[in-house]
Write a structure and sequence with these properties.
Elements (H helix, E strand, L loop, with lengths): L2 H18 L11 H8 L3 H13 L3 E4 L3 E4 L18 H26 L2 H20 L4 H14 L3 H5 L1 H15 L4 H16 L3 H28 L1
Antiparallel strand pairs: 1-2
Helix pairs in contact: 1-3, 2-3, 4-6, 4-8, 4-9, 4-10, 5-6, 5-9, 6-8, 9-10
Length: 229
């Protein structure tokens, strides 16, 4: 069977295993050898399967430790077709460039168009991301919700259609950086939220630029480190 087709089939079986076992968020899955034996395939197929689920925000590979479940919800069927990118650092940079084109103005729109109920939801999400970060727990799903909420607050139907780009970018960034920007993320999320809550469009725009610039600089730093290894 074509290896990519086989890997896709094994991906579904591995997701079924994670959901039915169940393997909880934060738990380690069996190692490469054990998975190959479980599903009756070669290790190369397992590596491809794991790589795909990492790109979809389900798994996280921790070098020298193992592979962990960080979410049980996939970004549905990879709508942007980004799982085929082999250089994840370059992908993260390109996604960050797109975010810089979009999200500062999205935040500015959200600051003047969000309802009181949406502002409260955004504040709650900001608080929850901070709590999870400080507790050392998986913050990724709530981080995705935070940025999704801002996009929805813009009340622009085209922007809502672009939400998968933002979600893919957040997932890719978090999977690559492993909490490297904890303090910066907490601080800039709070600045974005506070600006939107007070209806400060310029403040929301600049706070989002600051947030995304921190992300971009970290990706560049990690990419350079990887090229030197």
């Amino acid at each position: 069977m074509n290896r990519k087709l086989l890997a896709s089939q094994v991906e579904e079986e591995l997701m079924d295993y994670i959901l039915q076992e169940p393997v909880n968020v934060g738990d380690k899955i069996p190692n490469e050898f054990e998975l190959a034996e479980m599903f009756g395939v070669g290790r190369s197929t397992i590596r491809e399967t794991v790589k795909s689920l990492v790109s979809k925000g389900v798994l996280e590979v921790r070098r020298g430790d193992g592979t962990y479940v960080i979410s049980t919800n996939r970004l549905e069927d990879d709508p942007l077709g980004l799982s085929g990118f082999t250089d994840k650092y370059e992908l993260a940079l390109e996604l960050c460039d797109v975010r810089l084109m979009l999200e500062p103005d999205i935040a500015a729109l959200a600051s003047v168009r969000a309802s009181e109920e949406e502002r409260q939801e955004l504040k709650n999400l900001c608080d929850e991301v901070e709590r999870l970060y400080l507790a050392g727990e998986n913050h990724l799903p709530k981080d995705v919700e935070f940025h999704t909420c801002i996009a929805k607050c813009s009340k622009n139907h085209v922007i809502v259609k672009l939400i998968p780009i933002i979600q893919s970018a957040v997932i890719t960034f978090v999977n690559l950086t492993h909490r490297c920007l904890k303090d910066e993320t907490i601080e800039t999320h709070r600045a974005i939220t506070d600006a939107i809550l007070r209806g400060d469009s310029a403040g929301a725009r600049y706070a989002m630029i600051t947030h995304l610039n921190y992300n971009r600089q970290m990706i560049l730093k990690l990419k350079q480190k990887q090229s030197c290894e």
